[in-house]
Amino acid sequence: MPREQIHFVTGRLAEHSLRAVLSECADRAGFEYSLEVLGISVAALMTPRWVAPRLHVPPGTTKVVLPGYCQGDLAEVAGAAGVPVEHGPRDLRDLPDYFGQPAAAIPRDQFDIEILAEINHAPRLSLPELLAAAERFRQDGADVIDIGCNPGETWSGVGEAVGALRAEGFRVSIDSLNPREIAAAAGAGAELALSVNAANRAAAADWGIEVVAIPHTPGDWHDLEETLAWLAGRGVPFRVDPVLEPIGFGFAASLGRYLEARRRWPEAEILMGVGNLTELTDVDSAGINVMLLGFCQELGIRSVLTTEVINWARSSVRECDLARRLVRYAVEERTLPKHVEPRLVMLRDAKVHRYAPDEFARLAAAIKDHNFRLFAQDDQLHLVSAGVHLTARDPFELFTQLQALNPKNLDPAHAFYLGYELSKAVTALTLSKDYRQDQPLDWGFLTRAETSHRSKCGGSSEPHDQSQDTRRGELGE
């Protein structure tokens, strides 16, 4: 079959880098290409309306690829080109991935692990506070709101709280060993009681709801079997929870108990309280949640209880929601859970791009304006402008070097902007993340949108020449 002939469009500053990338990836990806450099330095300033009358598409072209930042309706460009037109990646260094196998897409609605999100110390909250917490958990993916009661007390307002939640459409479980609290919650519409053991099982038949059975002492199979037999004999639906223990207090053995529970009761519903690990381990919770939900998916554990009390676990519900989709996909498709859910990669980036060592000097020689481009790689900060390339590890040292040049455009507002960008760049170097000037660092699903400096400053809607170059840091534009 004839190979695809792709026509790439870029600006003057990106030409050198784009040619280098295309020369390496075109043959591997199986396409021929041509490259057109339009009369503008920064390709990010292009718009489809500006590109259309300036485009010259060679005969035989099958597709035109515009820079990723060239946003807008492509119909006018397609009309001028006579072939399909699409956006490439925003960073030209991503072109090899762009023409490789696309990342697998996790079906958004395919998961079978239910998330119970516990509101701890619910009796201390007002009804508005309780409803607000429940709504946040629901937005993050919780299926059931678990009302956590205070041990050793009887909450007289539990029925009112459950009723208020049910009126707002929440599914509710009650987390208590107190039969009076559980009975009141069940009467108000709670559907599940956590938990039942030898101490309170005698009342379970009166509640009319499903319960979670736990051993009176972790690892006591005889006690747990007695509770399950008692519940089954009275027609009380139940889930089994052998109880996950923290590291140092029997963690490995407790995982083994879940394996044993599945062996003993192949058809039983099982629940795991993952918060026993995320809340009690000095580590960010996302990785723990993914690993435990992977264990649950393989073992057929179809419900997890999580909490968001300690600060490092304050996004656990959302993490579990993403994780249950990821692990379901991995198990069902028999594929590695890798490169399919980037939103769970938060601390470090999956890939950190690098420029060639001579790229900064080439850029400094090529550009004509005095705006500042910032880069961060190999534990070094780089500042590039017309005829200028400064580098340092310390942002204060870099700024001192810049001040020594006495640039005319270094006013207080610009200095503030550079300080803001350099703080992001140092963070990127510290955590091995990609830094892209005027773009937010990628924190997975925690990323906060950031309005670019160029957008804040406004400007003409149509580019006309290199005088509109900005402070952007992408050689790939």
Provide a descriptive summary of the structure in words.
This protein is of the alpha/beta class. The chain has 3 domains: 4-98, Rossmann fold; 114-338, TIM Barrel, CATH 3.20.20; 359-445, no CATH class. It has 17 helices and 15 strands. The chain has helices at residues 15-29, 48-51, 75-81, 95-98, 127-140, 158-167, 179-187, 204-207, 221-233, 251-264, 275-278, 285-299, 316-333, 359-366, 395-404, 412-431, 453-457, and strands at residues 4-10, 31-37, 63-66, 85-87, 114-119, 144-148, 172-175, 192-196, 210-213, 238-240, 269-273, 303-306, 373-377, 380-385, 388-392. The strands form 3 sheets. Strands 5-6-7-8-9-10-11-12 form an 8-stranded parallel barrel, surrounded by 6 helices. A 4-stranded parallel β-sheet has the order 2-1-3-4. Strand 3, helix 3 (75-81) and strand 4 form a beta-alpha-beta unit. The radius of gyration is 29 Å and the shape is elongated. The two termini are 32 Å apart. Mean pLDDT is 90; it is low at 457-477.
Layout of strands and helices, then pairs:
Elements: E1 4-10, H1 15-29, E2 31-37, H2 48-51, E3 63-66, H3 75-81, E4 85-87, H4 95-98, E5 114-119, H5 127-140, E6 144-148, H6 158-167, E7 172-175, H7 179-187, E8 192-196, H8 204-207, E9 210-213, H9 221-233, E10 238-240, H10 251-264, E11 269-273, H11 275-278, H12 285-299, E12 303-306, H13 316-333, H14 359-366, E13 373-377, E14 380-385, E15 388-392, H15 395-404, H16 412-431, H17 453-457
Parallel strand pairs: 1-2, 1-3, 3-4, 5-6, 5-12, 6-7, 7-8, 8-9, 9-10, 10-11, 11-12
Antiparallel strand pairs: 13-14, 14-15
Helix pairs in contact: 6-7, 12-13
